[in-house]
Amino acid sequence: MATLLQINSSLFSDHGNSSALANDFVAQWQRSHPHGEVIIRDLGANPVPHLSQAHVGAFFTAAADRNDAQRAIIAESDALIEEVRSADIIVLAVPMYNFGPPSQLKSWFDQLARAGVTFRYTENGPVGLLDDKPVIIFAARGGLYAGTENDHQAPFLKQFLGFIGLTDITFVYAEGVNMGEDAKASALDRAKVRSAELVNALKNAA
Ligand SMILES: Cc1cc2nc3c(=O)[nH]c(=O)nc-3n(C[C@H](O)[C@H](O)[C@H](O)COP(=O)(O)O)c2cc1C
């Protein structure tokens, strides 16, 4: 049974453009995987804790030496990592806020980045420790950035995910959603067409 992990990070929850696109993709995926399991995290409604002094203290303390508070911090991070590890496909709904990803998504990333658990450093550089799997990113932006030097968001997402071992990444952009109703409608329509193509490609690959 395939498992899909959906991470929404819009502050508008299901009303966000990125969430609506991701929800649409996941609904189609469920139709082609009737026995599949979907796990949804809405980071806008239920953010994970921001990385703090206590977190890095817990992360950098050997397991045997952790106190109760540190064990609770590690347990939460472990659970988030396990969700990623056990998923067969990951869907990320990513708005652009102030030229980057929402801080809620960054906090989730910060919970996943654990030396010796999701990455390790070698003499040849860092190695991701998660098994690779498809990651589909629905990126909603008010303006136009994809493929330009002004897009600081997509390269960061690719770099972070690659760092922990996830390199099979596909972006679906809905850009220009704040550039008038027509621009928004056609951006969302194009994204939905692309989304349907991806569902079919995944179905045919299965
Ligand atoms: C707080 C905030 C900051 C934003 N910053 C940008 C930005 O830097 N560049 C941009 O193109 N659009 C920006 N926008 C527009 C959003 O990218 C656009 O509304 C998109 O649909 C957000 O995704 P969502 O609807 O899933 O939340 C911003 C919107 C908000 C609410």
CATH architecture: 3-Layer(aba) Sandwich
Quaternary state of the chains: single chain
Strand portion? 15-25%
Low-confidence stretches: none
Helix content: 40-55%
How far is the first residue's CA from the last residue's CA? 12 Å
Number of strands: 7
Topology as a string of helices (H) and strands (E): EHEHHEHEEEHEH
Which distinct ligands sit in these coordinates?
Answer: flavin mononucleotide
Would you give the CATH topology? Rossmann fold
Tally of separate domains: 1
CATH superfamily: Flavodoxin domain
CATH class group: Alpha Beta
Q: If strands are numbered along the chain, what order do they take across the biggest sheet? A: 2-1-3-6-7
**What shape does the CA trace take?**
globular
Relevant terms:
two-stranded antiparallel sheet; binds flavin mononucleotide; 43% helix; Rossmann fold; alpha/beta; 206 residues; 6 helices; 5-stranded parallel sheet
Question: How would you portray this structure in words?
Answer:
This protein is α/β, with parallel strands linked by helices and 206 residues long. Helix content is 43%, strand content 19%. The protein has one domain (3-205): 3-Layer(aba) Sandwich (Rossmann fold). The chain is built from six helices and seven strands. The chain has a five-stranded parallel sheet, sandwiched between helices. Strand 4 (119-122) and strand 5 form a beta hairpin. Helix 1 runs parallel beside helix 6 and helix 2 packs across helix 3 (68-86). The longest helix has 25 residues, at 181-205. The model has no long low-confidence stretch (mean pLDDT 97). The structure holds flavin mononucleotide. The site of flavin mononucleotide (FMN) has 17 residues, from helix 1. Flavin mononucleotide (FMN) binds at residues 10, 12, 16-19, 95-99, 140-143, 177-178.
